[in-house]
C-alpha cells in the first residue's frame, strides 16, 4: 500500500499551542538561571577574570540588559510585522537583503548548535562529579551526556506544549533555589559588611572587558526565543512581546542579584581564587558552608543538572525551528521541513540536531577533551559570540527595514532604539574580538583568531549560497525570509491545526 500523500498542513508547525508562560519557560530555561550563575559566571570568574581581573559581573548584567532592552523595542516591532519561526534570519533578510539573511541563517545555525552541544559538557562533568562524590562510582562524563542526549532527542520530536510544561516545572524549582541561596549569601557577608564593589565601574571597565561582555551576553541568550515560537503561540502580537520583556526582566534580576550575593559572601578579594578552585561547584559549596549542611547544596547541584538539561532541551527546540524555517524556504534541503503528523514538531530538523549532538559528544570522548572547559566554556562562549553577531546584524536590519518600508511606529521604535542598540553592539563585538584570547583562555600567541574568522567564513558561504539560489532557483530565492502565510488546510480535522491533544 502506498504511503498517504502529505498535505500542506502536514509540514506546518502546530499553531496556538503556547501561551506566554510556556514561551517564558523556553526563554528562561535557555538562559538557565542556575546554570548561568553556577556554570557561566563562576567558570568565567575562574578563567576570564583570572586573566583580566574583572569582577564587576553584576554591573555588566545590568548594562547588558539595558542594551538588549533597547534592541527589543525594534525587535518586537519586527515580530509584529513578520511571523516567521526563523526570527533573526527572516528579519535580517527583509531588512538587509536576502543574501544577508542567508548569512545570518548560517550563523544562527552554527552558533545555536555550538551553544546547545556545549551544554552536554557541563551536564556530563557535573553529573560525574556529583555521582562520584556520593557513591564513589567512577563513570565517564560522556555516558551521562549521551543519556541526556537521548532524552532530549526524544522530547524534541514530541509536541511543543509538552516540552513547555516540562520546562515550566524546572524553571520554577530553579527560581525557588536561587531565592533561598541569595537570602543566605546576603545574610552572611564576608567581613560582616555588605559590599557593592562589584557594581563599581572600576571593577568592570578594564582591559579585557570584551571577553566579559560576551560571557554576560551568553547568559541572556534565550531572551529572543519568543519570536522563534511566534507561529506556535496564541495571540502572537501580545504573547511574544510580553514573554520577551518579562524574560529579559526576570533574567537580569536573578543574574545581577545572585552574582552580587555570591561576591558579598565570598569577599571581593577571594572571588577569583575561590572560583578557580571550585568552578561550577562554587555556589553550592559556599551555600553548604553558610548553612552548615550539605543537603541544600546537594539539592542545588541536582537542580543545576536539571537546569542544564532544560537549557539543552530549549536550545534543541530553537535550533530545530531555525533549521525548519530554512528548509521550508528551500535554503536547506526541503526534507528538513517535515513535521510530525500529530505533534506538529519539526521532526526531521530535530533529528538532524540530535545527530550533530551525538557526533560532538563522541568526538570529545574519543579525543579525551575537557568537557567543562573545552566543550562547555570554549564551545559555548564561541557560540555566544556568534549569537552576538546575529543580534548586532538584526539591530542594523531593523533600522534598514523601517527606512525602506516606513510604518506607523514612532521614531524611537523605528530608528533611535534599534540604532543605539546597533552602535553599542558593534562596539561590543569589536571589544570581544580584541579580547577573544581571554574569552577562551588561550594565549595571544595561539591561533585564537580562527574562531571569529570561522563566523566570517560561514557568513560568506551564506551569501554565496543565496546568490547561487538567485541564479539557479529564483523561486526559492524569493521565499527567503518571507513571513509565514500558510495555505488554508484542505483537511480541517488535521490534528496539527485543530488543537487535538491526543
From TrEMBL:
UniProt superkingdom: Bacteria
Keywords in alphabetical order: Cell membrane, Membrane, Transmembrane, Transmembrane helix
Keyword Membrane: yes
GO molecular function, one term: transmembrane transporter activity
Positions of the UniProt region annotated as Disordered: 479-502
GO CC terms of this entry: plasma membrane
Record-linked InterPro entries: AA/rel_permease1 (IPR002293), APC_superfamily (IPR050367)
Localization: Cell membrane
Ranges of Basic and acidic residues composition bias in the record: 490-502
Mode of membrane association: Multi-pass membrane protein
TM stretches of this protein: 23-45, 57-78, 99-121, 141-158, 165-185, 205-230, 242-263, 299-318, 351-369, 375-403, 415-436, 448-469
PANTHER family found in the cross-reference section: AMINO ACID PERMEASE, AMINO ACID TRANSPORTER-RELATED
Protein name: Amino acid permease-associated region
Lineage: Bacteria, Bacillati, Actinomycetota, Actinomycetes, Glycomycetales
Amino acid at each position: 500500500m502506498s504511503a498517504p500523500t502529505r498535505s500542506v498542513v502536514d509540514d506546518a508547525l502546530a499553531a496556538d499551542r503556547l501561551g506566554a508562560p510556556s514561551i517564558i519557560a523556553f526563554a528562561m530555561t535557555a538562559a538557565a538561571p542556575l546554570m548561568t550563575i553556577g556554570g557561566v559566571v563562576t567558570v568565567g570568574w575562574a578563567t576570564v577574570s583570572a586573566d583580566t581581573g574583572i569582577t564587576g559581573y553584576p554591573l555588566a548584567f545590568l548594562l547588558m540588559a539595558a542594551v538588549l532592552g533597547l534592541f527589543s523595542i525594534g525587535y518586537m516591532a519586527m515580530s509584529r510585522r513578520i511571523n516567521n519561526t526563523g526570527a533573526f534570519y527572516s528579519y535580517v533578510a527583509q531588512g538587509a537583503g536576502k543574501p544577508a539573511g542567508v548569512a545570518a541563517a548560517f550563523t544562527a545555525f552554527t552558533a545555536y548548535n555550538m551553544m546547545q552541544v556545549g551544554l552536554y559538557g557541563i551536564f556530563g562533568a557535573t553529573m560525574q562529579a556529583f555521582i562520584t562524590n556520593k557513591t564513589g562510582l567512577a563513570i565517564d562524563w560522556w555516558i551521562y551526556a549521551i543519556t541526556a542526549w537521548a532524552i532530549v532527542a526524544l522530547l524534541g520530536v514530541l509536541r511543543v506544549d509538552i516540552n513547555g510544561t516540562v520546562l515550566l516545572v524546572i524553571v520554577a524549582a530553579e527560581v525557588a533555589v536561587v531565592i533561598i541561596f541569595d537570602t543566605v549569601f546576603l545574610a552572611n557577608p564576608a567581613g560582616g559588611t555588605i559590599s557593592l564593589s562589584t557594581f563599581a565601574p572600576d571593577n568592570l571597565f578594564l582591559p579585557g572587558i570584551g571577553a566579559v561582555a560576551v560571557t554576560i551576553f551568553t547568559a541572556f541568550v534565550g531572551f529572543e526565543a519568543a519570536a522563534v515560537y511566534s507561529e506556535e503561540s496564541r495571540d502572537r502580537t501580545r504573547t511574544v512581546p510580553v514573554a520577551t520583556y518579562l524574560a529579559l526582566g526576570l533574567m537580569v534580576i536573578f543574574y545581577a542579584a545572585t552574582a552580587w550575593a555570591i561576591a558579598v559572601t565570598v569577599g571581593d578579594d577571594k572571588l577569583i581564587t575561590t572560583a578557580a578552585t571550585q568552578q561550577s561547584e562554587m555556589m553550592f559549596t559556599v551555600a553548604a558552608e553558610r548553612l552548615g549542611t550539605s543537603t541544600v547544596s546537594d539539592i542545588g547541584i541536582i537542580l543545576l543538572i536539571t537546569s542544564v538539561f532544560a537549557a539543552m532541551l530549549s536550545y534543541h527546540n530553537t535550533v530545530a525551528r531555525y533549521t525548519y524555517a530554512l528548509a521550508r524556504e528551500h535554503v536547506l534541503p526541503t526534507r528538513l521541513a517535515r513535521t510530525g503528523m500529530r505533534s506538529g514538531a519539526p521532526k526531521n530538523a530535530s533529528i538532524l540536531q540530535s545527530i550533530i549532538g551525538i557526533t560532538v559528544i563522541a568526538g570529545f570522548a574519543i579525543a579525551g577533551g575537557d568537557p567543562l572547559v573545552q566543550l562547555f566554556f570554549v564551545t559555548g562562549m564561541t557560540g555566544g559570540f556568534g549569537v552576538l553577531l546575529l543580534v548586532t546584524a538584526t539591530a542594523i536590519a531593523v533600522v534598514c527595514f523601517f527606512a525602506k518600508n516606513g510604518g506607523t511606529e514612532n521614531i524611537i521604535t523605528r530608528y533611535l532604539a534599534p540604532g543605539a542598540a546597533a552602535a553599542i553592539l558593534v562596539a561590543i563585538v569589536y571589544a570581544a574580538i580584541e579580547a577573544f584570547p581571554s574569552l577562551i583562555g588561550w594565549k595571544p600567541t595561539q591561533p585564537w583568531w580562527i574562531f571569529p574568522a570561522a563566523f566570517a567564513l560561514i557568513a560568506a558561504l551564506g551569501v554565496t549560497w543565496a546568490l547561487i539560489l538567485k541564479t539557479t532557483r529564483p523561486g526559492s530565492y524569493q521565499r527567503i525570509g518571507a513571513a509565514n502565510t500558510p495555505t488554508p488546510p484542505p483537511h480541517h480535522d488535521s490534528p496539527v491545526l485543530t488543537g487535538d491533544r491526543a
